[in-house]
Amino acid sequence: DIEMKQSPATLSVSPGERATLSCRASQSVSSNLAWYQQRPGQAPRLLIYDASTRATGIPANFSGSGSGTEFTLTISSLQSEDFAVYYCQQYNNWPRTFGQGTKVEIK
Amino acid sequence: EVQLLESGGGLVQPGGSLRLSCAASGLTFKNYAMSWVRQVPGKGLEWVSTITGGGGSTFDADSVKGRFTSSRDNSRDTLYLQMDNLRPEDTAVYFCSKGGWLRGFDFWGQGTLVTVSS
Fold this sequence. Notes:
The complex is a heterodimer of chains A (107) and B (118).
Chain A: E1 4-7, E2 10-13, E3 19-25, E4 33-38, E5 45-49, E6 53-54, E7 62-67, E8 70-75, E9 85-90, E10 97-98, E11 102-106
Parallel strand pairs in A: 2-11
Antiparallel strand pairs in A: 1-3, 3-8, 4-5, 4-9, 5-6, 7-8, 9-10, 9-11
Chain B: E1 3-7, E2 10-12, E3 18-25, E4 34-39, E5 45-51, E6 58-60, E7 68-73, E8 78-83, E9 92-99, E10 105-108, E11 112-116
Parallel strand pairs in B: 2-11
Antiparallel strand pairs in B: 1-3, 3-8, 4-5, 4-9, 5-6, 7-8, 9-10, 9-11
């Protein structure tokens, strides 16, 4: 199975600042990587697929980059609604696997 | 607008069975792979199963293989998860999601809680 590791586990950021989240795969997943946001009490929401393509309706302050084993999600200017848990997920191989999540909290 | 509505969760004893349903609307259901993803409250996401659009192929996590079965009724736009021989570690919120083949899981239901306990 491909293991997905996210860092850091928790990121403390002030509103309006930039947040950079990392995701590392234990072997190459090409660009078959997605990012999700999950707010408390809600279902996850797809933000990014194919490592860098924003899903429908996702604002431009969310961007993804990387390929192979190293990926980054950047939130350029954090708004109050962006404080949540973020997960990466690979869909290059079965079983599909998720990272353990990065919690973005208010500093 | 795509909507996915899960039902069928509840409390079941270890070794028992439960069938989850996911009613889909706002999409041509038969055209899309569908998946189940679960989440222990307060923990991370775990992929459970994916079924192709026609229902001819399924992919299951090792943790549920031989115990859980995904199926679909494209005439009713409904996805199912038959869960047998349930274990306490299966306790989680189960989400129905569109996709799982390409582009990740692009729409999610609100989830249904399954509790396995005596």
